[in-house]
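Lecture notes, continued. The same structure-token format from the folding unit now serves as the input rather than the output. Read the line below as a description of shape only.
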């Protein structure tokens, strides 16, 4: 009977865990819908703004003098890993930490590395290592608003302009669907223009007021902040998708475990009943024999 009691306690424990994972899955699904709507609305705006910026800057004689496009010898690198504040989302955070560590050990080996963690998991992972850590923006996911993200983007942009950093890289999960997140190692600064973007950016002749140079000075910081904000939104949507998938799998696993435990409980109960019957029969035969 002690064995039956132990199995029963395990069944109750797994049932409680399954209820929790179901609830977490539902919460993640609700948050995912809102986060997915934000990133879906942001992508066309970001792409169009980038296309306009590429068009304007490609036609500007002074575009090569853009302070955010200044390419210099890379000695100081700022890496911005974007993770979540909480766990229970599969390999979501682990993938970012591994990708960041791989970049530090290979592509930027021998460089002076500064880490700007966005998300508590990134802060916890890198604060014990021998890096310069900027902790001011690690709690950015407490309120994923453009103003809060812009503050982090401005810190990175100012660091590049004043020469503190020669290169800035964003490492984040790009949202593809609920089950798939793609790790991106994206150069934030200095600005780069893909050949395909450069080709398509010259197809439109914009009328610019008051001047091309003024528009560039205004568009460039805005475009960079939007790019930074887009990466944070991508990561936020990916987090909820990863957590929803992880909790769904955990719920299924709990169901499978419940089947095994209930089968074990029934077998143990049947064995206990059989033993009791055998003991009663044996006792009756002993009394009858007397």
């Amino acid at each position: 009977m002690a064995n039956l009691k132990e199995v029963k306690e395990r069944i109750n424990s797994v049932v409680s865990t399954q209820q929790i994972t179901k609830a977490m899955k539902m919460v993640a699904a609700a948050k995912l819908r809102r986060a997915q709507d934000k990133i879906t609305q942001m992508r066309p705006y970001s792409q169009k703004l980038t296309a306009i910026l590429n068009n304007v800057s490609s036609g500007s004689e002074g575009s090569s003098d853009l302070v955010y496009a200044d390419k210099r010898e890379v000695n100081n690198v700022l890496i911005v890993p974007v993770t979540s504040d909480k766990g229970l989302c599969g390999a979501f955070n682990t993938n970012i930490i591994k990708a960041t560590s791989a970049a530090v050990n290979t592509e930027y080996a021998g460089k002076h590395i500064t880490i700007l963690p966005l998300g508590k998991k990134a802060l916890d992972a890198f604060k014990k290592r021998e890096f310069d850590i900027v902790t001011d923006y690690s709690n950015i996911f407490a309120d994923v608003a453009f103003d809060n993200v812009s503050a982090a983007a401005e810190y990175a942009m100012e660091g590049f302009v004043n020469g503190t950093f020669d290169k800035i890289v964003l490492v984040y999960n790009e949202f593809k669907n609920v089950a798939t997140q793609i790790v991106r190692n994206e150069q934030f600064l200095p600005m780069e223009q893909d050949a395909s973007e450069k080709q398509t950016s010259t197809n439109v002749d914009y009328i610019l007021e008051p001047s091309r140079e003024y528009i560039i000075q205004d568009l460039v910081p805005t475009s960079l902040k939007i790019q930074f904000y887009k990466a944070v939104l991508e990561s936020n949507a990916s987090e909820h998708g990863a957590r929803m998938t992880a909790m769904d799998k955990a719920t299924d696993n709990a169901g499978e475990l419940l089947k095994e435990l209930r089968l074990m409980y029934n077998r143990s109960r049947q064995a206990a009943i059989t033993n009791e019957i055998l003991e009663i029969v044996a006792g009756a035969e002993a009394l009858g024999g007397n």
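Point for the exam: The chain has a mean pLDDT of 86.
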